[in-house]
Amino acid sequence: MMGDLFRNQQAMRAMRQSAIQKGVIAVLDVGTSKITCLILVFDEKAHAAIDEGVGDLAGQERFRVIGAATTRSRGVEFGETTAPYETERAIRTAVQAAQKMAQCRVDHVIACASGGRPRSYGLAGQVQVEREIVTESDVAGVLASCDIPDYGAEREILHAQPVNFVLDQRSGLTDPRNHIGQHLACDMHMLTADRAPIGNLVHCVRRCDLELAGLAISSYVSGISALVEDEQELGAACVDMGGGTTGISIFLKRHMIYADTVRLGGEQVTHDIAMGFKIPANMAERIKTFHGGVVATGMDDRDMIEIDGASGNWGRERRAVSRAELIGIMRPRVEEVLEAVRERLDAAGFEHLPSQQIVLTGGASQVPGIDSLATRILGQQVRIGHPLRVRGLPQAVTGGAFSSVVGLSLLAAHPQDECWDFEMSHDFRAARPLRRAVKWFRVNW
Amino acid sequence: MRAMKDPAPSRLEYRMNRLMLRPSTRSFLRYGLPVIALAALAGLWSIDEDRWERTVAFAAELRREIGERPEFTVKMMIVEGASSELAASIRKSLSIEFPVSSFNLQLAELKETVQALDAVARVSLQVRSRGVLIVEVDERIPAAVWRSSDGLVLLDKTGHRTAAVPSRGFRPDLPLVAGHGADAAIPEALQLFDVARPIRKRLRGLVRVGDRRWDVVLDRGQTIKLPDSEPVTALNRVVELNVAQDLLERDVSVVDFRNPQRPILRLGSTAIRSFQDAQAMSLTDDG
User: What CATH number has the domain spanning A266-333?
Assistant: First the structure.
């Protein structure tokens, strides 16, 4: 059952390795409201970043952004491609603009998808260690011993990450290799998604003459960039409030342990405004971004917003609504989104985590006043998160809406071990600690 | 609201854009295409035969005009390191009419011509400033006269031919050698002549015998036969015998040193007679 998928994922991994060797790779976030493409260049030599105020953080000094483009998404609903041809055109627009900025052609792309109704599974496996010392093959064996639940014929595994290893009585090992013990067990986090939307996305990317070098779920990658290291370590939830979907990912000990999406987002708010004021969607979007909010004050009753029905009858159709009315439309919908998030977090057992930190990010988290509203619904520890600073990232792409694309580039630079990585040859992995040592010397001397 | 143009590039446009971003395409457009275009233009232009000929003629004319400028004119030739006769023969063999453009002087060919002369060991030609062609020659100095079946020839000290002479009288100062293969053994012959200086007045010449050894021919029909190996030592012994005992002043027709361990004298007829007389005399004394 898993053989075919393993080969696919391993092929993508090999493609990513070769792309990083070549030095240029693109990351692509196909969202409901916008498509963003970043072009990254990898250079091992570039350690000058420390001078620019960006330290040796999370290994992001390895790459630099040389091209960035954002375009309005088309043919995507709830993060799923409904009109592949339109989506392909939008992807082409973004990739071409990014290539123009980078002045360089890119052949490999890592994409992330927000749709497909992701579902998390926690798996456990155990195995007897063959010899005294845990080797690579033992790790591969314990990962293979996890019993895969029946996740449905129409679904694909997107992530399968070893989260924790237990060797005899010791738990919490991140890397059990070369430890001495007899009984090795592991916890694995597996994420599945609907096959059709993922397949459509892959197809769109292929149609743009690009090779897919990796696939990730967007709530996971926004967590990578929006959560700071302590939050990832101690446990936190990242709520990526996008256009069509709101992604939730829970991190603990630097691993994603749960992910889910709520199929509600900023576009529902826009839709509500358009319905309520009987105005076109683009105008509703405009007044939402310029005047929107979720906490009304007395001042807002006097704050009038000019709107225009765009029926051509300018004189009659012209009217003004107060900002309080706008807030009155927006607030219930945002509350609904946050309550749905609360529901999912409760279902996941978030309250049992040691830390209750929740980080809101994504485009819809930019609504003024959402932090106080979220505090009421989600709990006391809520903050608005922005993506990590990355070298070369244009100012326009540093907002909360871009945390998933930035997280994707961080993931490209430092890929998380997936279970299919553990069937690789021995010497390839052995080269890494040496390289790390050399790098440590370079950075510190 | 005005309808906006679709910002998405068409598939073809997108592919073209990516093609143009390929490094190889870019370098081809920058360097390859202009070169090909220029070459094609030049090719098309010169397809007409007449036009091509005119171009060639124009180029030739241009080259000639530049060659005739005073900066490129060679006005005279100086021969260095050669005797006057050799200089004359070099001038004759080169036969350059001055002034001439240095474009038209093929120095390599001229050098071969000069090198082909017998008396020239080594030559270098240079066009120097102020239009001077300098021919530097190492001349071969004749060291011996060789009488062979082809006539009389002058040889230098390595045995290389330098010139032909009509008769021995032209160079009476040079020693004479004869015989097949004598030219190859000239250095040895010169050593022999050097050793034979005390009997120089009587020396007629050296004869190479069988291309392996020398005969020294003196006047009055005397011959000294020298061995193959170390003939100089042998001749030295003969000369010293002559100095000590006037060997060659006596009636000896051949001094045979072919075997230095056992030299042989062949006496003349007078000597034989007096030797027999003396023998007879001693016989009578004894009896």
Answer: 3.30.420.40
